[in-house]
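note to self — DONT lose this again. spent like an hour looking for the file last time. sequence + predicted structure for the chain T wanted, 576 res
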Amino acid sequence: MNDLKRLFSYLGPYKRDLMLAAAFILIEATFELIIPSLIADLIDKGVSLGDVHFMVYKGFQMVICAILALITGLLYARYAARAAYGWGARIREAEYERLQEYAFSNIDRFETSSLVTRMTSDVTVMQNAINGGLRPLMRAPLMFILGTFFSFTMNPTLALVFMVLAPCLGIILFLIVRKVAPMYKVLQKTVDGLNGVVEENVRAIRTVKAFIREEYEEEKFENVNEALRRKGTDTNKTAVLNLPIFQAAMYLCIVLLMWIGGNMILSGNMEIGTLTGFLSYVMQVMNSMMMLSNVFLLLTRSLASATRIAEVLNEEPDLKDAKNPVTEIDASDIEFKNVSFKYSKSAKENTLENINIRIEKGETVGILGGTGSGKSTLVQLIERLYDVSEGEVLIGGKNVKDYSLKTLRDAVGIVLQKNLLFSGTVRENLLWGDPDATDEEIWSAADKAGASEFLHRFPKGLDTDLGQGGVNVSGGQKQRLCIARTLLKKPKILIFDDSTSAVDTATEKEIREALKRLEGVTKIYIAQRISTVMSADKIIILDEGKVMDIGNHDELMRTSSIYREIYDSQLKGGTL
């Protein structure tokens, strides 16, 4: 329930709409409760006595009550919809904002498909709880209390008949809710699994088609889809048990009341109109109990979704600014002091072990190593995409934890191994580097990145649409655009994480030559090709998370067997 309370705090400006919706429900229910007593008077005092004037008068009152109930019902629907969808939008916005605050380590704790479900399907469940649950939640208690009161007022003896059934129905409802509650949690996790398969297939569609695995993927989807169908069927099969049970109880109650009431009419202890009005109240009381049972089921499902949403909102970002963060980076020298790192506290071994490196301001540094040696992990610590497990990373002599994240990440430009462009034009993507950049600055960055050559060939130039994820450009073009985007940041530290792997060696050489002219910028290249780092001031050899050798090309050729082995395997007897 605490999760629900927290989510209701996001109602904000829609709290007024929710309160108005609740008020209109109560007014509507009041008008509906008046009608049975009017029916009883109509029959007992109008029809039985043949008083036409009285019948017209009571009929007019019934019509007025019905019209007012209709109007208040429509007003309820309007305000409930505004409250539900406004509330849902604010919850999704809060989840998305929290997601933007996450560190990589936070995101690692959730599957992407699960995050999508928590922001869509789970929020929809919460909206449906307002749209479908508020009305019965407000009406049912009022109709139960007033219906019971009026029925006891009409005939206490008959009222005891249906009151005996109430505890039995309550016990049955409790048993149903207790069984179905955990089933809803499993159902939402099954939706996660389905979304995961769809997301993976769409993301890897080219690989699927290249290996002709369409049938395999169809079968995989069919399995998770069938699992969702079975789980949904089983859950709802249990949840709807309350309907036949309540209907059976209601019809049994009506039969008993007709039998007992009929005998009372025959004995002269009750009027026909009284029995008719009494049955109307009984129907309202029984319907209110049925509505309450549906509300409990809806609340049970909402609690499952509320818990999943609250997990996203309650997740505290692992990376936070210091209390008084430094907001300016004066120098771009970098130092790793006794740095060790592992992605999870429970991991037995460190990904990086006892790293001690110093990179001077304006130096060009290359990092070489095999797959899994920790190259990408090392540079991610500079920008605080992750925090070190031991030791410290310094920039300009200060621990990176002392800087505000905005200041740090503005000063560090990183072109990741996975190059990602967004839907939109070339200009819109490049402006991520600097929203205020002029076209002249954009073209200058594109020149340095070797991108202007193909951009000039595009009919629309910078206004060329890249499509979703940059599907309209090749891998090499995408890499060069990502480099241009990073250069527009004008960072003090530039990191290239194997970001020219899809570019031919001649173009790569041109890019390196252009980047050399960036004065005062510390440049770090992670590469698989030794030609990328040969001219670097300093080359770092990593192996299994440890620094094996450090030096320039000539020094490493003399002292490092690992470097010579890489050189011989790639370049000996060949050309750069």
